[in-house]
Design a protein that fits this description.
Largest sheet of chain A: 6 strands, mixed
Distance between the termini of chain A: 83 Å
Number of domains of chain B: 1
CATH superfamily of chain B: GHMP Kinase, N-terminal domain
Strand content of chain A: 15-25%
Largest interface: A-B, 130 and 85 residues
CATH architecture of chain B: 2-Layer Sandwich
Shape of chain A: globular
Number of domains of chain A: 5
Strand order of the largest sheet of chain B: 2-3-4-6-5
Helix content of chain B: 25-40%
Radius of gyration of chain B: 27 Å
Number of helices of chain B: 6
Pfam families (chain B): RNase_PH (PF01138), RNase_PH_C (PF03725)
Number of strands of chain B: 10
InterPro entries (chain B): ExoRNase_PH_dom1, ExoRNase_PH_dom2, ExoRNase_PH_dom2_sf, PNPase/RNase_PH_dom_sf, Ribosomal_Su5_D2-typ_SF, RNase_PH
CATH class of chain B: Alpha Beta
Subcellular location (chain B): Cytoplasm; Nucleus, Nucleolus
CATH topology of chain B: Ribosomal Protein S5, domain 2
Largest sheet of chain B: 5 strands, mixed
Protein name (chain B): Ribosomal RNA-processing protein 41
Shape of chain B: globular
Structural class of chain B: alpha+beta
Keywords (chain B): Cytoplasm, Exosome
Number of strands of chain A: 40
Distance between the termini of chain B: 78 Å
Strand order of the largest sheet of chain A: 9-13-14-12-11-10
Radius of gyration of chain A: 32 Å
Number of helices of chain A: 26
Oligomer: heterodimer
Amino acid sequence: MVEISILKRPRTEAVVTQRKFFKKTARGKVIKVLRERYLRDDVSCGIDHCRECTDAHALPVSGALEHPSFPNGHFILPDTNVFLSQMDLVESPLFNPPIILLQTVLEEVRHRSLPLYNRLKALTKMDEKKIWVFYNEYRSETAIIREEGETPNDRNDRGIRKATAWYNSHIKVNRPPIRGQASPKLPTVVLLTEDAANRQKAEKEGLTSVSVRNYVEGMKDATQLLDLLAAEGTFDIEPTRAAAGRQALYPDYLPTATFVAGVKAGQLHQGHFNANQYNYLEGSVPVPAFSKPVLLVGRENMNRAVDGDIVVVEVFDEKEWKAPADEVVDQDTTLKDDDAEDSADEADVEGHEVLVRESKVLRTEQRSLEKQPTGRVVGIIKRNWRAYVCHIDSTSLTSSNSTSLSQQTVFATPVSRLLPRIRLRTRQAPSLIGQKILVTIDRWDVTSRYPEGHFVRALGKVESKEAEQESLLLEFDVPYRPFGKAILDCLPKEGEQWVVPPKSDTSPEWKNRQDLRDLIICSIDPPGCQDIDDALHARPLPNGNIEAGVHIADVSHFVHADTPMDSEAASRGTTVYLVDKRIDMLPALLGTNLCSLRPFVERLAFSAIWELTPEAEIVNIRFTKSVIASKAAFTYEEAQIRKDDPHRQDELTQSIRLLNTLAQKLKAKRMAAGALNLASPEVKIHLDSSESSDPIDVEQKEMRETNSLVEEFMLLANISVARKIEETFPQTAVLRRHLPPPRTNFEKLQDILLKRKGMKLDVSSSGALAASLDQCVDLKEPAFNTLVRIMATRCMLSAEYFCSGSVGKDTFGHYGLASPIYTHFTSPIRRYADVLAHRQLSAAIGYAPLHASLHSKAHVERVLDVVNRRHRMAQMAGRASVEFYVGLALKGRNEREGAEVIEDAFVIRTFRNGVGVFVSKLGIEGLVMFKKDMQFDAENYTITVGSTTIAVFDKVSVRISVEKDKNTQRGKVKMSLVHPIDSSGL
Amino acid sequence: MDWGIATLDTAADIGMELDALCAPKLEQSSLSGDNSHTAHVILYSSTIMASRVEILNEGGFRSDGRRQYELRSIEIDLSQQGHADGSATFTHGLTQVLVSVFGPREAKMRSQTIHDRANINVELSIAAFSAGDRRKRSRGDKRVLELAAAIKSTFEPVIQTSLYPRSQIDIFVQVVQQDGGLLQACINATTVALMSAGIPMIDFVCAVSGGVHSTSPLLDLTMLEENDVPNLTVAMMPKTKKVSLVTMETRLHVDRFEEVFKLAAEAGQAIHGEMKAAILKWSKSLVKTMGQDREGGGEMDDVGFE
């Protein structure tokens, strides 16, 4: 039993331990809050071999000895600003002195920026970093209270200094000199702060304190580390000009209180800033008050917002409302010769030129009639800046400096077209040309046209697979570090040799497990699949019904809740599939071996077994943990051939046929219920060989009957499991839903279809939509229907995981599947939500008690938030990876055949100076740009070039080539029209 | 090895999954419904979360510096208050409750007399200034009545009412200050006050509140914690090892419940120690004053309280 104690404390302490303050609620009511805290003497200092604090060993006994300024060893104790502005430095693997992180600092970071706090939290858990969190506010010697007239900031600074002083004396007291020996060398605790006033105060109190820059300069990897310092740290960014002399390019933001009040009063609107990828001078902010997003036109109106920021906008009078530009404006061409060193200065001639060019662009845009709310950004609620993958723009380098290592200011162009260029200072500029690098934005002043940032690290050469891969993973925030030791320790000790133990009543593996080894079970997967997480069987029953079973890898047998492996899997959320790499959610031993339902070996499984009538009606269903031995692992193709071969009459083939007939009936039923049959531009990439992984060609995926067979049974299993766990755990069941899309999403597509093709799209329900999509057929163009389906899909919302207790029961439905309830159960090897569903199902059938965390709604919600985000990111990463390989394949084809690649394409958008096309054979989209404006009819979605009119949905031929941007080395797919007219000269 | 292809296929084997198809890559304003919208909602809610206090941080400390199983400071004051036959002020951290006990005495209203035992009457009042927001609660307030009823039913089986037929015991509870654990403070204070009034009981009643944050049980919750985690109050009798009250107004899974319940019952023992010490000290001082009146009064032992 745990030790229960009562904390005693005399009343006299109340001055230090009680805190009283007044708080104003959202409604304007003033509430008095009284809080107390308990000060203690058992808060550990975290230093190894400390006489007093025995329970923690995070920090080495003598600190770090490498720094030349502190020969006796030292620990660093950074203040809040160090973490707020220099997180990249702290995260660098080269920066590894032992760090004492104070609770005061941690809480302040949390208060100021949640993303930084999360990064910091992750750091404290890493083995390589020696970071100890010291709860100074709870230790009696270091707790302080705010004095009269002291600002919270000053209070915290004082607390930090007090803790530093305490540490130094604590080290001294616990290492008394031993008689006869030289007095021990005591390591110093160094206060790391950027605040000069704080340093002065510290020195007065006899503490050692240095600035980050000074500290880093003394380290052995100083050159690399200095580049990581944020721009904020360097106050001499433009030493030649006085800061006051610079003219503001942007309006100032309103004070926070003003715009918060404005939002509350409904005069201002809050939302996420979305940059326009076709036109860098335009952005939009969807706000609840208007059905259309608020349009922001021009730099001043976007006012330093970066894609993803939460901003506050002011909407102009309706007279000034505009329609979005129907022209493509490329940042690279418009801003070509802008000078990085000087562009901050408005008075500068070149800066002026930029402005003239830009305003010309804005003026010439003749806007079509359809107006939408237009406004400007007046404040930023939250920046969502992260590290961006960029290329250095070689023209921004001062040519004389090309080989020197002096510091210079250069432009970095982000890979994503949604982001502005970033100005940064670096010493390594020449060596970074032609590389992919990671850059963080530090600030964006009113006087600076571009945001300022700093270099984080280089990823490698442009177009090298490693660099491209890593940049993809970083861009989509995919955790790709190898699994740590603590995680691998959770694997079974037998490793590869692990087998299902022989059947006995005593072994824990066999407890309550059904023996299904005799069943004729097989798996059907794509070719080369290593992580087989599902297998199937079917057999006729004597009563005329059919028994069908889905067997899913029993991952929850190996991955227990609340272990390092479990929390890692939860934070990864999903396995990420890139074209030539897979980033696993679980260690490979589990994913591709112990859990994988390989043929001819016994494996643990979680089975769902139905009794179905020949008409595929469910008679009953049971779930059980089981042991199976798969009899065969087919590819879709093999299974298809086997099924179609009339000479084969063996049991295995019979069961595939049985499954197939059932699947067809299930599918028919689903379709009748209004499920959607959607399409996506999916292609398959042929890789040359495993070594080079050079793409040879791209082809569209094929769908076979057997794909649908597997799919139907997985859906059936998922739906059945969802029902079961929702029934057992109405508050915390892990489910998946797909909300019906708002009707307005379809308006534009409906309009285009009606005007161009005279077709109607009924979006009143999923069933109606499915039916009307079937009607959208152009007899001459079989691919047209697929195109419409792709476009319709893009109008929909994405599906999401949710916790059953946190939303209304009427919103559980899955729109696309037309199922009232759904979850993910069938791929626990590669999706974390499935692991949770497994745990809940196994508790629901009484196999194992449910882990406590799955009873907590808050916990489930938190985990699913992460999983949802990871899921989305993983999909985007996968898609981007395919896109990259399609580019490579095109390039290869160009070179090999020496000829141009010409493909058929559909027009999907028209602009004043170009058309957007979709090449279905390659699954890519592209832009055909003309040098001058053409005759453009926005109403009818047509553009007339010479005497030829091109409209949306027209079939055209395009010439596709890949070329590199000369300045940034960024690869670009370039398209031009071949048919009906050749646009290369236009 | 061409699992590059393979794995891409696996991602599509659940081809019906729409999100796999919803390509947010293209510009969002034109054709696509803005499907980044859901993400935004989540992000925003997390910004709100930022301002909230951590219930249990990674160092194992709660927001007030206690660890999971540490109870707040307890103070028991048994000094005489006015005409009351017995009275006590009980403090758990920042929660303070004052209880006065009158009786056993003749019932005011005949209708309330019970022929074979004493009637227990509990009246509770919560001072308007006791909590952060000033709020008057009338005597008919549902919450007040409920608390009073809980106290009454807790003590009915403990007080030996059959010794006083046709009489009434009045318990007046006044909440002076509250910061979580109100019911536990009321019950503990009532126990001590009844003892100081000399009313015979079969045992002490010691109450402790407990809750579960994610998976970690906590004891003796503050208001801040009470608002955030599912919690329950257990009143146990340390000598007879019986439980006289368990209340829970939040939802908690039955497996978790058992754990917290056992823990809270265990914590009751710790509180019992405190109460016993306070009562002993008080009675010793009483004996001492009596001894000064009557020469050579006998020493009081711990006998009665084992």
